[in-house]
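Note to self: keep these together.
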Amino acid sequence: MGRIGFLNRLMSHKTPARNLFHFGKVKGDTGKYEQIVSTGLVSPERCVPEEIEKPAYYFKNMPPGNTLGSPEIKTQDQIDAMRLSGRLAARILRECGKRATIGTTTDQIDAFAHERILESKAYPSPLRYAGFPKSICTSINNIACHGIPDDRQLANGDIVNIDVTVFLNGCHGDCSETFLVGDVDERGSFLVEATKACLDQCILLCGPGVEFNEIGKFIDRYCDEHDLASIAAFIGHGIGSYFHGPPEILHYFNEFPGKMQPGMTFTIEPILSLGGADIAVLEDGWTAISLDGARSAQFEHTILITETGTEILTRDQ
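Structure:
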């Protein structure tokens, strides 16, 4: 679950749904799909048993974590805990993906994820984070990210990003994937495949001594080569006992300083669009939707910088 970058807040617009498509037409061939222009019915908050360890924001309303400052170098105990939370998040995500089928509502997927996380003695990190009302994020078609699960049924041809974060043994593990629902058109399939490949290549270039800005520079080149746009308003982030912290991982060309060091953990989570990069946030305060109505896809992993390279912590093993 990414956040709006501190340096990019002016790139997003808080706009009622009825005004979203007054900003221009979609450029190029974006394929056939159903545009989402409003949110559905959101069910009441799901309960969390008393015995489940909860983050501080469960008990009181708190703002999102600060992503500015020096990245934390994790201890071996913290790394071991993050391996467990990351693997659990990856397993829950895989199981949720199997339920991304025609006729299933995103609220049903949220209910499944909530129960599976609790059964694993973990906490669904998005729940109550800065007021978020659900246990996962589900973003369909032209919703870029932070979609709130609701009563809309998934339709043939949808693409849906499912973003799962769990809090286990005092640490968060965060990952997401975009799934195909039924028969997805050629452009939608291309978008999903290209976004996954982009994340995979971003991870490969990481390692000790590598500058963080190499990630954004690569994404910028990749989008140029594939005629895509990076929705740069949302960033990757440091993660650990906190959901969001430094470093900021910017998914666009930049020259901000900072190098990766062994023991750092952070997410990389590019959102790539078939149209433009501008977004609006709906009146629920969370759902980020493309201004031009174009589809986007997102993939995310939590990674650890090691002495020799990287380790993907959110890999289902």
